[in-house]
Amino acid sequence: MAVHPDYEAFLASQPPAVHPDETSYELRRRAYRVQSLALQGELTQVAEVRDIAIDLGDRTIATRLYVPLDEHHEALVLYFHGGSFVIGDLDTHDALCRRLAADTKMRFLAVDYRLAPEHPFPAGLNDAMDVTRYVAANLSLFDLEAAPLVLMGDSAGASLVAAAAAELRGENLPLAAQVLVYPTLGPEVVTNSSHQYGSGYMLEMEHLRADYQRYLAGGTDHTDPRVTPLFYGDLTGVAPAIVVVAQCDPLRDEGVAYAGLLEHFGVPTELLEAEGMLHGFLRHGAVVPDALAIVDDIAAHLAAYVSAH
To answer: Would you call 93 a catalytic residue per the annotation?
Structure first.
C-alpha cells in the first residue's frame, strides 16, 4: 500500500518521536498545540465561534460551539478530539471543526474532556457521556429547539464515542449517528496493520501503548469493553455508524474489525477508507491537500445520512 506522495517529504522532515517516558505531558501538549497550529492552514469562515462552559455539578467542561454560515438545522454534532487520551484540546482541533461545520452545514460542539494522567479512565468517558446527556436536555443553550445528536471523534476521541454510544443506548437520547475516524479500540489489539505501520507513520504504536498505561492508571482491566470496544459482547441498538480508516495507519485493521462487529449486531454501518492517508490526516490538509478533499467527503457522507434520517 502506497503512502500518499505528499507525506513522504513531510515524514522525512519530522524529528524522531520522543517516547512518552522520556518527556512530560505538559511539554507534549505544548508541542502538539504548536504542531496543530502549524498544520491548520487557512481557517474556514463560520458564522460564530462561542466558548460555552458546561456545569456538570461536580466539574465544569469547556466546549466550543461552531455555527456555520449556511446552516441546516438537521443535527448538533458533538466532537471529541484525538490525542492518545493525554494530549489535545479545543485549539488543536479548531481548524478541523470549523471546516466540518461548514461542510456539513450543521453546528459542531467540540468537547474538552478531561485527560490522563491527571484524570485516568473513566474520567474522559464519563465526560463524554455526561456532556451528551446535558446537551440533549439543554438544547436551547445551543440555540436549538429540537435536534438529533451525532457523536463524532478521531483516534482516542473516537474510542470515547464508540464506548459512549454503547453505554448510552437505552437512555432514550436522540442519538442519530456515531462517526469514528481512525479509532483506537484497545491497548492490546494486535493486527497486520499495527505491525506494518507501527513505527514511522505518524502514530507510534509503542507510544500509544505507553499512553494507554497512563490512561488505565487505576488498574482497569483492558478487557473492559469501555476501554476496548472490540470486546463488547452485544452492540445491538447502538447508533448507526460511519467508520473511517486511513489506509496506511496502524489502527486501520481494528477500525475495519469494529465496523464488522457493528454490522454483526445489525447496526447500520458505513466503512470508508482513505487511500494513502496516515493516522491524523484530518488535520494534515496544509501539507497533504488531498486530505482536505477526504475531510469534505466524510462530511458529505454524514450530512447525507442525517438528511435521509
So the answer is: no
